[in-house]
Specification:
There is one protein chain. Helix 1 (2-13) crosses helix 2 (15-36). This protein has helices at residues 2-13, 15-36, 78-81, 86-107, 120-123, 128-136, 141-145, 153-158, 160-173, 189-194, 204-209, 214-229, 242-251, 270-276, 282-285, and strands at residues 40-49, 54-66, 70-72, 113-117, 147-152, 176-182, 199-202, 233-237, 255-257, 265-266. The longest helix has 22 residues, at 15-36. The chain is of the alpha/beta class and 292 residues long. The structure holds ligand C2E and magnesium ion (MG) (3 copies). The site of one magnesium ion has 6 residues, from strand 6. It comes from Methylogaea oryzae.
Length: 292
């Protein structure tokens, strides 16, 4: 009863809170319906091996193909979902769709990995690895072995022990783990030791900045060095120019991703891109060999 009174008072003093809550619920409902209506699609952005200049994988990036508003990027709907179970539902769809696509590409003779972004809420479900196993069961070991999950570093740091366990469980299944937006979360070296992620993915802001800002360059260099010391792989994202490419090659980065190589593209364009991709001739000049 006291609660009820409190609620009513809320109504009187600040109806806008209630309205906002209502608007949010209605948006969530729309997103749930859109998911069932098949309005979400995955775009893929290629990842290229720095040394060989060869495409080795792609990151799956979700888009909402809205019937009226057109193609919406994740920043327009993921934040709304982050604290709702709908993010788990969407996340499971993403894993399923990316694995189905990967199966198709492997069957067509393309040798590549696919990485998928995982939200913290999804990772912290207690039956996460069990669900993952169920979702992947139909696709075969080669798909599982070429799947990578990206977890943002800041989310991983919220509960290091739980995430460390989830990472190990995924690895036991043959699934690789990358720490996304690495460098923004201030991982201590002890955290890095405990989070046995296979790959550190350097946050794009440091990569953008490294040509002009010595601090950003130091971070990029530092993360590449850390990855080498801890025997992890390292990916740089936000590679926008050939100067970024050369700098990263010089620094000994493993893999690159960014507009200088390719923008995220619909699945049907990937085979065309993969067949056509040859590294810039300048690549050879910088000491890399042509793709085999
Ligand atoms: P992210 O995982 O760090 O993905 C990289 C983002 O940078 C992508 O934006 C990509 O399009 C963009 N990008 C790639 N190369 C460049 C470049 O050279 N320059 C610039 N300026 N940008 C570049 P997008 O697709 O808008 O995704 C944004 C974020 O949304 C992702 O960041 C990821 O955190 C999240 N996200 C995307 N798909 C999913 C998903 O399926 N599930 C979840 N939970 N989150 C997702
Ligand atoms: Mg990512
Ligand atoms: Mg990132
Ligand atoms: Mg990001």
């Amino acid at each position: 009863e006291a609660k009820q009174a409190g609620k009513n008072r809320y109504h009187i003093f600040d109806p806008s809170i209630d309205q906002r809550q209502h608007a949010k619920q209605s948006t969530l409902k729309k997103i749930g319906k859109a998911l069932n209506a098949g309005q979400f699609v995955l775009y893929y952005q290629p990842q290229v091996d720095c040394r060989r200049g060869k495409a080795v994988g792609a990151e799956a990036l979700v888009r909402w193909n809205h019937p009226i508003l057109g193609l919406l990027g994740p920043s327009e709907f993921i934040p709304l979902l982050e604290h709702d179970d709908l993010i788990v539902e969407l996340g499971e769809w993403v894993i399923q769709e990316a694995s189905r696509q990967l199966r198709e590409w492997l069957d067509d003779g393309f040798d590549l990995k696919i990485s998928v972004n995982i939200s913290a809420r999804q990772l912290h479900q207690k039956e996460f690895t069990q669900r993952l196993r169920e979702l992947l069961a139909q696709h075969g070991a080669d798909v599982v072995g070429r799947l990578e999950l990206e977890i943002v570093e800041t989310a991983a740091l919220e509960d290091v022990n739980a995430v460390a366990d989830a990472i190990r469980a995924c690895q036991a299944m043959g699934i690789g783990i990358a720490l996304d937006d690495f460098g923004t979360g201030f991982s201590s070296l002890v955290h890095l030791k405990r989070l046995a992620a296979d790959i550190l993915k350097i946050d794009q802001n440091f990569v953008f900045g490294m040509l002009d800002d010595p601090g950003d360059l130091a971070i990029v260099e530092g993360v590449i060095g850390l990855a080498a010391s801890f025997r992890r792989g390292v990916i740089a994202e936000g590679v926008e120019s050939i100067d970024h490419v050369f700098m990263l090659m010089g620094l000994g980065c493993d893999v690159m991703q960014g507009y200088a190589l390719a923008r995220p593209m619909p699945a049907e364009r990937m085979p065309v891109w993969l067949k056509a991709f040859t590294p810039d001739p300048l690549w050879e000049l910088a000491g890399a060999s042509r793709p085999s």
